[in-house]
Write a sequence for this structure.
């Protein structure tokens, strides 16, 4: 750990407001129980494979004897950990976390895993999701003397666990009590002095799966993390399930019963890595199928199918396949655009999009194009892309989106804009088409989307499209910002 | 705040074990209530003036509206804060802290001020001292569900405050309750959404004083911090007192009664800055008087009085004055030795002391010398200094120490060695003299030392010399390491 | 510019030897003459668009009055420059450089632009290429007293310019003299107190093109840099040409005559960005055509065409188009793999390739595959990829490469392996096939490749395939390492 | 060497203009020829002991086989080198340098040692001093094609060496030729592939001495560096001497004859470390003697002798001794003030001096004081100190300076202010006294100062006091700034 620059601040960086920003996943979690394995490095590679789920902070907690050590920091996994850090982290089990805050509070104090001492010893926790009755729980806890050092709902969970476990419950019982209190979305990995726990809420909002590596159990938000470390996929953790892993092997308990499955459908559309399998479906296959269905719903006579890379590529290939129209990478993405990149100043704002995406002029001149993207937020970026394509001589441009319009805010762990900022909640299809200045605009219908999932249509949360929220919200919930920061 | 390297780790740096290390102060605290003033910068300069009380971490918490923001980090004040950080910290009141851990846990999570949310809002706390009944309190708190994220006793205080204040007590009442629970040494500054509190334990172990800057109140561990920001010294906070400062001005409450004053005498001997006045005595004057009394107790016929800089300089001047023997700076100190300095490897170990102290050969050849230092720990460094002096031709060397032998460990906020490592607890005077290879060795007697403080002899804690502990220790106390880290 | 860590060392980092590493481009250059424009930011975005041509160091030199200021550093463009750095760089013309050393000497001292004072004032130079008679020139210069502070051949050019310009030649004449001395490959941008020069060697090995932005001239290694800053492409700088840009506009001089064009064909195959146009051909179109011709040369009955991303994607699309076989992104690339990434240790070496590329199991099971990549170096990575595909159930795998086998080292600015390390120089096609464990292996023929470039077949350097070197090499040339470092 | 932040810039930090800044030494040099020794670490400790001679940049060059490696950087020795850096620097001889630029150009490119390749191989050079005929030499060199990458006169020396050595001279002959060309002040250490050279100009302006460590020769600016690494002092290098050290031992050549010794007298007054011996005199002893002579020249009836720490301490002790008046450390210096410290903003400017120096109120009230400092520049700081002392109740204050008034600029390696900024060149003694608001003011007379140096009065350069410049200046010299930066 280098001496310079080690500091914690809640003054925060001013969050760069990116226009037309995509919804963002909150977090990714990983856990491994592997005496004899190099669990620190395996966790490093595990959360590295989950980096797309959160680029703001990263952390690893490791169980060594009866102590849990933790290292965490702001930035990418590769920035937070050096070789010597991993060498120092030795133990028999570990959990890891990558995080994207959904609020302005990009602070080290909010980085996970949270590690603390309680009556029963030490405990580490990593959380992906969003607790919806956080106000009620916060009040209940502080009124009995609890203090909070972060602004995350995860610290609520941690306090509940400490309270229940202290009342002579086993940790498993404490987790069950805790699940009974919690409303909302949560996929948790918990590390105690004895065991690794994997916990998924009663609806299965956020993904969580189980794998095995040379007889040692591994849990991860997505199966790509299992692949990366060479582990085999076993199964998804089921809604309401508590998986306990320790020296006696793996046991499963139903913590709360599952009344309704509500897997987040946005994982398939945008968040998850294409090579992951989630709750029975391969993400890449689903995306390609979205493209095929787009071609059926919106057949159009054009010369080229062009994706907005990388999010639109799979669907564009599906569209091209189903329509027989030629697929072409007409937009070149600069792979070096990262967090530390200097944004163009006002006077050269046009440089902004071109830095990230440059159209390949030679391919576009005089062509009719169907442009495929996964979703549309404020439309600003799309409009600029369309402008660049026209400047290169494209004479007809249709925009097809592989998802229905997002018209409702998410309260289950996705960072969407507020409802009043959502384009689809404010404008008609025709108004949006005009704003983006395309010749045609089409969103994949919700029915088509759900049809992809065979007989499992009812297993998904589609609240952001349909407004059908699986869990009723606290009244205080209306003001979403307040809620998350309590 | 730079992006790279912001991380928190409890894996820790391997604490460099310095041979013959001096006892170390735990912390320094500072607080200011100054609407209209630049409280962040004033606090920066305040803790900068207290830097000698802790070089491991630094932090500032500031009250802005009803939010308390905090920035803290590992390292010196000048390393933790940049200009832009201070510009961002705006508010009407602030507290600051510098820290030296007494255990191996040099971690960001242990840096102060601690800032948290509780039922009553937000609260920040900075602590100098050491709670002695920490085990009992820790058990009481965790058994009712409390969790601990640091390994400091300060988090115990914070939890007590939260619990008492939630029970419909005012914060002042909560502080009183808290003081009734706490045993040991503590000087606290507390920042709430309304007020700044300065609290000192019933014995007054650690210093804490009060000043005023243009009508605004300031509190600090030492008066030098008041001088530095241009504030005038008002008075010391008295043992057991709670000073409350807010928009209504300053009020004082006796939180617990003071049965016995027990100011730490080591502050005068070594820790405090010479320009500070503590509990009625100027540190520099006390040190010079120690030298005078040394000359009376140990008159010796030599050519030169030479201090070990900087700790022995004041006493050496006193010795020279009283004895009439010439004072000479015979050892040159390299002012660039700092934390990041590369320690000499095994093969050039001799370089070690010479890097820090180089004897001025021309002054020493053929001379008889009395060498003055403030205290002796393991004697290793002293022995090397003596060797260097002899190599330069000094023909007689006497070592005089301006304090009695430290024979007992401190439990009230000073980081002494364990009792079994203390030289004076293990060897006779003659054995020590032989080990250090000096011609004469003398410690200032406890009586002489106390005589300096006129009619206030009984106001000091002399436990490290006499073994007379003002507060009985928990039985668990015996194993001191366990205690501090619980 | 932060104070900590600014240092220069030639002790160097141990160059990570990546197995099966691809050939690497040496450098990218950029220049702009734009009084009134923010030339520092435009140069920043220009070299940012050329980042793929060198990730080791970056630099910008700017002309302000009659001073040339320079800032350069190790790392990516976004790491070397902060916002405040760009704010400080003000002027009317600028040049920029990104660099990949071809030797072990990754040193700040070798970063460009080189800026120096000579008899005529100040001069800055950025160089892409490789001088082949460097030994002779080095000896000539040192024997008349020249000193060299870097290990780059660019410093040779700089010394020649200084010597010729001092002999009462104009800078343009000095450049001509210099070109007469230099053998090998070079595309230069030169900044003097009056003018910006763009210079290309007599063969046109390395690319260099000219654009215009609101009446101001811009030069860049590739047209994508012009696109990025919103400049229009004018034309390529021709072999042997000197373009002079200053307050009087643009003038062109033929510095040396062009006997033979020898554009580097590898630019189209691998180095250049797909959206660039170089010497009359669009890179992406050429790559797609390579794929089509591969399909003609090696028609095979399989189920899927799968690219090795990103280098094989365009050719794979061409193959799929020509063959009618379905294109599928069967290998998922982790976009977060960067320079600071921790390489897997020996015990988890298998993790290595999977971190970067993960096969999408669901798409591959039971399938026959043609895998498309651009070239093959040592074959180690390809073999691992093939292994992963088989593990996922692929039952037949053919590997098609969109270039002929690289059998000869490059001396004109590309960092290939030594000849004895080149797979194709050592093994037969069948031996390579067996080593990689594929069912079929095919390289695009040189004839097919050249046919893509219509009537311009003879305009290219194909030395790395054919051994036909456009410039005879110094005898000392044999030991290539010596040569480059002199 | 960390990857982030390694960059070179000539844009520079804005040089903080400190009011009343003291003159500054330009540089310190060190060299060791020690096969079998850890020459990198010994050089590290050597330049660490010379850190007071330059805090802006540091560097070490080391001879390994026939290569010379160099590492240098901006900042303190302890900031530039880490343990792993030193481990990588292995070899049989090394030179080191610390630097304080005398101009605004605080740039990495100007850091030393300079290392370069020339016709004869590799060469490293470290320089302390200032060449006065730099314009003439610069013109001569550039007119024959030389280029300059730094703005230091040291690069002139390097080019001369390269030119002479290439003309079939031995390096020793080249050094002699070079010395015949150079005018001004220079103490050089030069490292070639065979030998270590120590060279001192014909006047001996800047110090340079020779030591021995276990039979290996060491050279250093000051003897304190020899002491620190445990080497014995042999002798000073004499004016005009070239010392050559290699496998055949040590040989001495008179490079140019010495017509007149002109050792810089300011070394004794301010720059050098008190524990150093320079040209036959111990610095500390000289300083104490200055104080004694001050007491004779300016006897005054006061209560206390108080030094401005640290520069006035030795003289104050001498004054106290000669006068019999009590010495007291009445001003406390904060040892944590360093380069990264945040300067107080306008509104709290008074904090500025108090941060660095705090008067000990208890000692001063009602007292008459003689304040001792080494010199006076603009008087601003002194005036503030006097103000603080009066505020503490001092009722009479005399200021005595242990040097004559500085009335002339230095051209031989000291960074004085321009003549028109020098207080003593502009105002009468009485005017200065009034400005500083003291009751009395006295400068040590030049005669008294010179008398200290027994029969060697004529061996010193006193130009800054007397205007008697040992070397006539170039006419261009008048504009000193131009000269140094050429």
């Amino acid at each position: 750990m280098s001496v310079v620059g080690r500091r914690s601040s809640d003054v925060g960086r001013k969050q760069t407001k990116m226009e037309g920003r995509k919804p963002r996943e909150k977090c990714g979690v990983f856990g491994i129980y592997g005496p004899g394995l190099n669990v620190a490095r395996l966790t490093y590679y595990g959360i590295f494979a989950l980096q797309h789920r959160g680029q703001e902070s990263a952390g690893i907690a490791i169980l060594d004897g009866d102590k849990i050590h933790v290292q965490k920091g702001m930035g990418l996994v590769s920035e937070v950990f050096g070789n010597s850090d991993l060498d120092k982290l030795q133990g028999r089990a570990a959990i890891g976390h990558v995080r994207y805050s959904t609020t302005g509070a990009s602070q080290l104090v909010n980085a996970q895993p949270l590690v603390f001492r309680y009556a029963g010893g030490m405990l580490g926790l990593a959380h992906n999701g969003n607790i919806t009755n956080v106000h009620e729980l916060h009040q209940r806890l502080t009124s009995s003397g609890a203090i909070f050092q972060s602004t995350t709902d995860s610290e609520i969970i941690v306090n509940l666990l400490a309270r229940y476990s202290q009342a002579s419950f086993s940790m498993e019982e404490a987790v069950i009590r805790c699940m009974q209190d919690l409303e909302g979305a949560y996929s948790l990995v918990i590390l105690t002095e004895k065991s690794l726990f994997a916990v998924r809420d009663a609806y299965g909002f956020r993904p969580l799966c189980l794998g095995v590596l040379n007889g040692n159990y591994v849990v991860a938000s997505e199966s790509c993390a299992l692949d990366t470390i060479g582990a085999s996929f076993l199964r998804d953790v089921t809604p309401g399930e508590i998986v306990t892993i320790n020296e006696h092997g793996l046991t499963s308990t139903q913590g709360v019963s599952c009344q309704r499955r509500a897997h987040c459908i946005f994982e398939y559309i945008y968040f998850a890595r294409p090579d992951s399998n989630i709750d029975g479906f391969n993400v890449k296959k689903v995306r390609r199928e979205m493209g095929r269905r787009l071609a059926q719903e919106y057949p159009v006579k054009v010369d080229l199918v062009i994706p907005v890379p990388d999010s639109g590529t799979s669907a564009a290939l599906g569209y091209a396949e189903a329509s027989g129209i030629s697929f072409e990478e007409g937009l070149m993405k600069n792979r070096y655009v990262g967090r530390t990149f200097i944004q163009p100043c006002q006077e050269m704002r046009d440089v902004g999009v071109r830095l990230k995406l440059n159209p390949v002029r030679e391919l576009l001149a005089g062509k009719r194009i169907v442009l495929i993207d996964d979703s549309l937020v404020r439309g600003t970026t799309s409009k600029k892309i369309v402008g660049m394509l026209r400047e290169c001589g494209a004479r007809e441009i249709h925009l097809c989106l592989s998802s229905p319009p997002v018209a409702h805010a998410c309260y289950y762990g996705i960072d969407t804009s507020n409802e009043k900022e959502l384009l689809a909640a404010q404008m008609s299809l025709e108004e949006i088409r005009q704003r983006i200045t395309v010749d045609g605009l089409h969103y994949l219908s919700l029915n088509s989307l759900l049809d992809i999932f065979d007989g499992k249509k009812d297993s998904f949360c589609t609240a952001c499209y349909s407004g059908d929220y699986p869990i009723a919200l606290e009244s205080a919930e209306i003001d979403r910002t307040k809620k998350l920061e309590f």
Remarks:
- The domain at 24-262 of chain C is CATH 3.60.20.10 (Glutamine Phosphoribosylpyrophosphate, subunit 1, domain 1).
- The two ends of chain C are 33 Å apart (CA to CA).
